[in-house]
Amino acid sequence: MMFGIFAMMGVLLWSSISKTFFTPTLWTLEMAQFAMVAYYVLGGPYSIQLGSNVRMDLFYGSWTDRRRAWVDAFTVLFLIFYLAILLWGGVSSTAYSLGDFSGEPFRFFADLIATFFTEGPAAAAEKLGHMERSASAWRPYLWPIKLVMVVGIVLMLLQAVSELLKDILRIRGHDI
Hints:
Elements: H1 4-21, H2 28-50, H3 65-97, H4 105-119, H5 121-127, H6 143-171
Helix pairs in contact: 1-2, 2-6, 3-4, 3-6, 4-5
Family: Belongs to the TRAP transporter small permease family.
InterPro entries: DctQ (IPR055348), TRAP_DctQ (IPR007387)
Subunit structure: The complex comprises the extracytoplasmic solute receptor protein and the two transmembrane proteins.
């Protein structure tokens, strides 16, 4: 995803060129927004893995490694809680965008996957309802970007759990 910014720049460049020399296109602004969401949501876990995320270094830099690990372990618990709620909302929103209005998104996806593997893709496609579309003039389906967001949240949640486990090891005195 490091190069996703170039995809967004390409879309915005085409938007500028088409507005200047041709008929303006309707899809460019929304596509740039989708590309930025994918860039941000999928690049976040990678930046945390590399340790390149931004920290407030007012006190943090002068602390010992063990004290940093205690503070990081405490704060990452809040992140995990937040990501769990965000994941629930993302899965619910994705199920809604695929036409599920029952309010039970995990059951909807379990039934969809089971139908796909037992009865085939055609039967699974029949389980989908009226798919949500954007209110813009372009009117793209919204489930692909919502699915990208759910994948990004899951990756961020996995990375947060990894950071928590590393902090626990640092607290116990192990070198990582």
